[in-house]
Design goal:
Length: about 325
């Protein structure tokens, strides 16, 4: 009996209209080297054949459990999956992605060996129609393992490179207890931005292993990639984070989240401008940014250049962009 074989790992997949990619995703999960899985497929009111595909796998594999529900959004599907978890650990996968065949085995073995609450693996982007090529990975990647500390938090290069994988739900293994009391927003296209940081706040020890264990499909038609006005909820999510870290007096987190808020603001602005949308809705977000720029202190981690840059943005650049709306 191998390390940790008695522990059930629950793998949750929110499913919505993904018939083109779904079989590849589910195949990569049921063929994991670690077999003691509780596979939860949440069909969120799909209108294509995705629901039937889920049922087909449930008939062939007793580890697969399918939840059919009315469409409520990606976050609502995640919440439904959490209610049926049987394992001590949780892994997420998106329905158009592919999981490395040893992802669960490797992340679980590290979590158990090092007593970690979360273990984050690396990922590789794949294009539509591309079949991922796995590389060989040792079972215990302790040589490539980093325990995340304040040193990483203060490393701008680390934050910039790994911000995506640290934010998204997938690509990680979590202890189930971290999700107690945590709910994803139902319909937000940024349900991870609202939620993942809360799980990190509850974790005592987090590890990162620099090995490609997940293949993220660069699907331009996916739920979160098609722009509409609902994407402004991503800015609201960063606002909630910023308010929390202000109250907790965590200065470095304030700096990081303010930067993410600003980046999300300009991402929304650029898309709205391209689609000739009403930019006046951005004025309250700019006002919030302006009121809170004072919380950016001139610290070693922030630096004079960025301190000046944010003030230039909120007092000069953004007003010039939206002054005529």
């Amino acid at each position: 009996m191998g390390l940790g074989e008695m522990d059930i790992v629950s793998v949750i997949v929110p499913v919505y209209n993904s018939e083109k990619y779904l079989r590849a995703c589910i195949d990569s999960i049921i063929n994991q080297s670690y077999k003691n899985l509780d596979i939860i497929l949440v069909d969120d009111g799909s209108t294509d054949s995705s629901g039937k595909i889920c049922d087909e796998y449930a008939e062939k594999d007793s580890r697969v459990n399918v939840i059919h529900k009315a469409n409520g959004g990606n976050g609502d599907a995640r919440n439904a999956g959490l209610k049926h978890v049987k394992g001590k650990f949780i892994v997420w996968a998106d329905n158009d992605d592919v999981v490395h065949s040893r992802q669960v085995e490797i992340l679980l073995s590290i979590a158990q060996a090092k007593n970690l609450d979360i273990v984050v693996g690396w990922y590789k982007a794949i294009e539509d129609g591309e079949f991922p090529q796995e590389s060989a990975v040792d079972s215990l990647q302790t040589s490539n393992l980093q325990i995340l500390t304040e040193v990483h938090l203060n490393n701008d290069d680390f934050i910039k490179k790994y911000s995506m994988i640290l934010t998204v739900p997938w690509g990680k293994i979590y202890r189930k207890k971290l999700f107690e009391g945590v709910q994803f927003p139902a319909k937000s296209k940024h349900d991870d931005t609202w939620t993942t940081w809360k799980v990190y706040e509850k974790a005592d020890k987090v590890g990162f292993v620099d090995e490609i264990l997940y293949f993220w499909r660069n699907n331009p038609n996916s739920f979160g990639r098609v722009f509409d006005i609902s994407h402004l909820s991503g800015i609201d999510a960063y606002k909630e984070q910023l308010e929390y870290f202000k109250s907790a007096h965590k200065q470095r987190y304030i700096e990081i989240v303010y930067a993410e808020y600003t980046e999300m603001f300009f991402w929304c602005y650029n898309h709205m401008r391209d689609y000739s949308m009403d930019l006046s809705v951005l004025k309250p977000y700019w006002g919030y940014m302006r009121r809170n720029v004072r919380y950016l202190k001139l610290t070693k981690s922030l630096g004079l250049y960025m301190w000046v840059k944010y003030r230039y943005l909120v007092y000069c650049r953004i007003p010039c962009l939206i002054q005529h709306v």
